[in-house]
Amino acid sequence: MTETDIRCIKCNEEVTLENSHASGRNALRRVCGECSATDRWLQRCRKSKDKKGETEKEKEARLSAEKVTLSLSKMSSEEKVAWYKKQKEERAESGGNRKRTFETAVGALTEAKKRLESQQDVDRWFRYKDWAAREVLLTGAKPEELPRLWRSETSKPGAITKVVRGELLLKEWTGCEDRLGSQHELSASVKQRMDLLAKEDLERFQEISRGRLERGENLLSADRLVSSANNTRQESQLLNVVSDMEEAATNRRAMEARLFEEAELADARRKAAQEEKPKLASATLEKLQYQQALERAETTVNAWLMKSRNAYTGMTADIKESGIEADESGKQELQIKAQDFERLISELKREVMEKIETLGSLQIFLKIKQDGTAVGPTDLEELARHWNTLYIRVCKAVKDVSTTQAAADLKKFLGGFRTWVNQFKKRVGSTKKTKKDSSKDENKKAKLSGPPAGTDTKLGEEILTSYAGALHAGQEVSEVFNLANESFNVHDWLCQGNGSQCLRVTAAQTKAFVDEVCSLTYFSQQKDWVYDSWSKDKAKAQVSLALVAKSSIATKIMKAWAHVVGKTAEDEFTSVSTDVDPLLGEVFTPCFWSFGKKTHKVFYSTDYGLAEFKVILEGACLCIGRPLPDEGLKNFGSFCQTVCEYESQTWLDECQDHGWAVLLKKGEMLGIPAGHAYIQVCLEESHGLRILKGTRRGLKATKDILKARIQQWPELQEHRTGKLLSWANSV
Which of 269-273, 355-359, 500-504, 645-649 has the least mean pLDDT? Predict the structure, then answer.
């Protein structure tokens, strides 16, 4: 084999050992650098990434690479060669980064036109002779005085001197020069460049450049001496580009020869190893190895078949869980497929075991005589070789199990069975979803009765308009609404019982509590959930209330809130623990509430008629409320409908006479007495926390509200409202 015989196995073009690399163990099977770069690109783009985190550009590259790989797998050898050649040409056209060294040079022929305009300060270094001549001309000094005058001039404190070639020079400013002109030139140049990509490259460049500069300086000096001696003008060739190229080519040829020699030696060793007969043990050991291979063969085949059976069993259990036994046609089809699977398994096992049994009873003879009698091995070495041949055949038979036609049929059956199972599950899933959706609709229809939603009312729209108009006009909200005063003692407010005024706690009192709640990861996750639910149903009002589902977080919030209200106020509260009754305990679990921009909601009473505490965590809101009138308790449904149709001024007048109004900003807390009806209006997006508590002095109002609700909607008696009323009666 010669060097010209080496070709790339991808594009089938001639390559050298330097610009290619080995593919596999054979050092002479080479892949050129361009084809290798193409394969690396495919592998890099197909590399599996987090599907959720990949960008659109990464997804497009991955899908493109998968498509190219799939098309390559279907190409013939000639088509693959043509494809790799095309990729190679495209890479050559686009160009590639190659590290430059001094073995190449750049020649440039440049024509330049310039216009010059400059002003320069001119300093000149005078020798003694030039200075003396000027001094005689200007001052008429005598020659014998000139040495003394020169020493006096050079000894002055401001004099600047230096010694060049053993002669003292004096620096003097000779004025300024203005230069105007134009220049038109044609120049030829040769440049050698080297890429500096690492510290080692810089050190090598400094070493090479230093030597070449010295060589150029010496060569230039020598050429000047020759030109001066011959009275001629000789051009100097300072860059030895040709010698650099020849040196690089010599080094390249030497490396190529060394690599080729190493590759041929590796190829020769590989061929020798293939041709060399395996070193055999004794005939007894070879026979023992053959017998053990027969025993392992059956175990290996059974394990392979068991793997297929486990896959089939898992899919069968999966489809049975999906309810196929309730489908008569599906059940019959499953039985047919089970029979097909058992048949394929038995056929495969029979085929493989027959082959192994044949190998087990096989006798290999050296030759057959003319009379038909067989001659067996003549010595122990030949006998050992025969046992070794049988051992290799048994191993090959086991290894080829997965490549037989019976194995291919089994694999095809399992793939079809898996597709059938998925289709059945999808069909059943869609049926269940339809039933679930229909049951949801029925549940919605059968949902417990209750008051209107209160998020789309005439009252709320008018108050929202007045609120927004006041802020737009630059008015204080207190000028439009009669706002309640701040309160600093929660206990005193609780002792009023079912009073007509609300509780308003300043942000300074709740700052630590608000900061702690806002720093919770659960709070930020809750807001993300709210935004997601709002985006899914844009037609629905952007008002939400969500229970704090994590008991540890709820406990932490309640402990921090207890510090805000104080120990004496805490003694006035009554509630049910989730440990005692989980259903009633959820009523007293803190909840996060959220209102979108320009939203409102009418609350016909506090939830379950309990005392309600609202803390503003973000944003601001306006709350206006009053106690429920006696007429409302007698006919709660009629009262709810009446409030929805209220004129805003009527509601404001009633709240001014009998109720309260509060503008809450971030950090402030509102306490609403048990059984009060109120409206909450938010001009900006707002988030907060709501806590319900039973109070000893407000239990009567709570019972009245619960009874009014049950009287209006009797089915509530069997649910949480009825249970809460029973609890309130027992307290």
Answer: 355-359
In angstroms, rounded to a whole number, what is the distance separating the alpha carbons of residues 610 and 591? Answer: 14
Q: What pLDDT band is residue 98 in, cutting at 50, 70 and 90?
A: low
Given the candidates 2.60.120.10, 3.40.50.300, 2.60.40.1250, 3.90.550.10, the CATH classification of the domain at 458-730 is 2.60.120.10
What letter would DSSP give residue 4? G
Q: Which residues pair with 625 in a beta bridge?
A: 660, 678
DSSP letters along 597-637, please? TTEEEEESSSGGG-EEEEEEEESEEEEEEEEPPHHHHHSHH
* Non-local CB neighbours of 302 within 8 Å, separated by 6+ positions: 349
Top mean pLDDT of 43-52, 59-68, 90-99 is at 59-68
Q: How far apart are CA 4 and CA 15, in angstroms?
A: 8
Phi then psi dihedrals of residue 408, to 5 deg:
-65, -40
pLDDT at 255: 73
Question: Span 710-722, mean pLDDT?
Answer: 85
Cβ proximity of 688 and 641 under 8 Å: no
Domain boundaries, the chain: 3-94, 106-230, 283-426, 458-730
**How do beta strands 611-618 and 669-672 pair?**
antiparallel
Percent of the chain with pLDDT over 90: 13
Tokens (6 digits) for 655? 């709240």
Calculate the alpha carbon distances from 298 to 44, 239, 386, 731 in Å: 42, 77, 22, 78
Query: For residue 500, what pLDDT band results from cuts at 50, 70 and 90?
Result: confident
111 membership: H or E segment, kind and range: strand 106-126
Nearest to 668 by CA among 618, 610, 625, 607: 618
Integer Cα distance of 708 and 637 in angstroms: 9
